[in-house]
Amino acid sequence: MFDNNIKNVFVTGAAGFIGSNLVTKLFGMLDGVEIIGLDNMNDYYDVSLKEYRIAEIEKAEKNSKCTFKFYKGDLADKALITKIFEEHKPEIVVNLAAQAGVRYSIENPDAYINSNMIGFYNILEACRHNPVEHLVYASSSSVYGGNKKVPFSTDDMVDHPVSLYAATKKSNELFAHAYSKLYNIPTTGLRFFTVYGPAGRPDMAYFGFTNKLVNGETIKIFNYGNCKRDFTFVDDIVEGIVRVMQKAPEKKNGEDGLPVPPYALYNIGGGTPENLLDFVQILSEELVRAGVLPEDYDFDAHKELVPMQPGDVPVTYADSTALERDFGFKPTIDLRTGLRRFAEWYKNFYMGGK
Fold first, then answer.
1. Which of 11, 139, 156, 332 has the greatest number of C-beta atoms within 10 Å?
2. Is 165 among the residues known to form the active site?
């Protein structure tokens, strides 16, 4: 359980997919804690989804013993970040805000430098100057790039990113290690593997495919379907974050009398990579079951197999044994169950349950 002395938790990216689910989960676990949220509410994807998530947070707050303070602002705004830390003095910080997406980083690199590099630096600096007990931050399976060895382990070399997005996430890990070493700040990085679920990001394949199929458009399946992804349902991701939040890496000194960096890194992934063609099959079945698409929908007529895209990798596959060893947890929600929950949410959100 969380330390009873915890008074404030700061979650960046609170209107985001993972962030909003984390905040609502914390409402059910904590008592008398102020949860501070930050999000810039940008229009990288449909802002109404972010507004929906904030509304869900506000609903959950009414039934909790916690309070929620939301700031609309940007990680790259150092004055704002400094103000939040000085006013609220969070003991635990969970940095989930970032410019996401591999393909978008090819066309819009500025967004990634501002949010993922400068923004993360601002968080680290604020942690340095305030009594933060634990910084948990989002990394990504993208850091593994084109690694051939599977499953991917945090012990693997990850020095050859194939996208700017991946490079910024690897840089976060390096920055965090340096700050852990220099300033004895406990930091834990989490490499997420293809997170999906209700009210997720429309740029992710399962969501984008659904939108296209509903509109009668053709979906493109990259690398001619010869890709595998380690899909992880958002509830499993959030459960992993919550467990990690409660156990900061230990502060201790080495033989030289200097701090050993209180730094940790974990994968959170399902550990069962799914072929993209199988994934599309399951998604299509669940969309029909939920009534999002008619039973006689011709999926084959709306599928196109295309070559690999720049920045993509053929496989993601998490070795999450360290997470299970240290926290007694591994993701358990299977792909069909997760896509069923997404399809049912999609039906209600976009079609009013009709």
1. 11
2. yes
